[in-house]
Amino acid sequence: MSKIYEKAPAKINLVLDVLRKREDGFHEVEMIMTMVDLADRLEMEELPRDQIVLSSQAGFIPLDEKNLAFQAARLIKERYGVKRGVYIHLDKQIPVAAGLAGGSSDAAAALKGLNRLWDLRLPREELELLGAELGSDVPFCIRGGTAVARGRGEKLESVSPPPQCWVVLAKPPINVSTADVYGKFRVNDVKRHPSVPRMLDALSRQSFPDMCAALGNVLENVTLHRYPEVRQIKECMIKAGADGVLMSGSGPTVFGLVSKEMKVARVYNALRGFCKEVFVVRMLT
Ligand SMILES: C[C@](O)(CO)[C@H](O)COP(=O)(O)OP(=O)(O)OC[C@H]1O[C@@H](n2ccc(N)nc2=O)[C@H](O)[C@@H]1O
Ligand SMILES: Nc1ncnc2c1ncn2[C@@H]1O[C@H](COP(=O)(O)OP(=O)(O)OP(=O)(O)O)[C@@H](O)[C@H]1O
């Protein structure tokens, strides 16, 4: 029986701005997201019975309907009346509740993989619409590449990829709930909104220094205020010589952009003193 494999990469937010709180409780955002080369891997295989079964080597994530990959499989199966079963093995590499969209990317990979396994031939736009039902970051994870995201994150416009560089990711041992961070966020407290056009200009000119200067995330202050260790990680990365440093999503992962290979080891080693989960990756361009 044939197996299908899908990679589920992590995302970082180069820009995350919040414009206002909406009537439906979500926030109107303006973000620029891009994928990095740290990925979960999903293996999908037909089951002889009509059931969704999920397994993982990671002991710390739910494997039932609370898992976003499970929810994705159930959604596509029910929506298109598929009467077949699937066994999904999730090789989890992306830290959980980290601001790296790990669960969202698993859901996206499950939708893409099952579209192939069950020969549904759904166009990408339809998968993105399905993905939006599972979470605000899922449509971007289906699209991949680099994109501006608006609305609650589901309205996408693909843009130029960032200039190539090293990305050091550091996640302190705390789990941050996205709902909590948005819940504590007050748009009137924002002193300076990051500029999406400025970042787009840096990307279109492939200017690494200008990209670093245009980084910005308005959720950072909420998480930094609550978790001083995130602030310490930022300071440590800057001191160690990272060229641009920002918290990703609602945190707590902080990423540092580094252009010169000889500087990467210094940043990595400095961070290892603070937290166990440190990764050196490349942008997925
Ligand atoms: C922080 C980011 O990861 C940045 O990319 C996203 O904005 C959040 O994306 P996500 O984790 O896929 O978010 P969802 O699962 O859709 O929503 C989780 C919770 O975050 C809040 N939320 C999320 C997205 C948004 N635009 N406004 C919100 O207020 C809502 O309280 C929601 O209940
Ligand atoms: N496939 C999955 N992988 C990781 N966590 C999952 C998954 N499915 C459900 N979860 C649950 O979702 C919560 C958030 O996990 P996730 O890793 O997606 O957060 P995140 O990286 O902060 O996402 P985002 O950046 O989109 O806000 C965790 O509490 C976890 O138990």
Description:
Pathway: Isoprenoid biosynthesis; isopentenyl diphosphate biosynthesis via DXP pathway; isopentenyl diphosphate from 1-deoxy-D-xylulose 5-phosphate: step 3/6. InterPro entries: GHMP_kinase_C_dom, GHMP_kinase_C_sf, GHMP_kinase_N_dom, IspE, Ribosomal_Su5_D2-typ_SF, Ribsml_uS5_D2-typ_fold_subgr. It holds the Pfam family GHMP_kinases_C. The active site is at residues 11, 137. The chain has helices spanning 68-79, 102-117, 124-132, 138-143, 178-184, 196-204, 208-214, 220-226, 228-240, 261-272; strands at residues 3-21, 27-47, 52-56, 85-91, 146-150, 155-158, 166-171, 216-217, 244-247, 254-258, 277-282. The chain is of the alpha+beta class and 285 residues long. The protein has 2 domains: 3-158, 2-Layer Sandwich (Ribosomal Protein S5, domain 2), CATH 3.30.230; 166-282, GHMP kinase, C-terminal domain (Alpha-Beta Plaits). The strands form 2 sheets. Strands 1, 2, 3, 4, 5, 6 and 8 form a 7-stranded mixed sheet that branches. A hairpin with a 6-residue loop joins strand 9 and strand 10. The relative contact order is 0.18. Adenosine-5'-triphosphate binds at residues 61-62, 66-69, 96-104, 106, 137, 178, 249-250. 4-diphosphocytidyl-2-C-methyl-D-erythritol is lined by residues 13, 16, 26-27, 29, 31, 101, 104, 135-137, 152-153, 178-179, 182, 249-250.
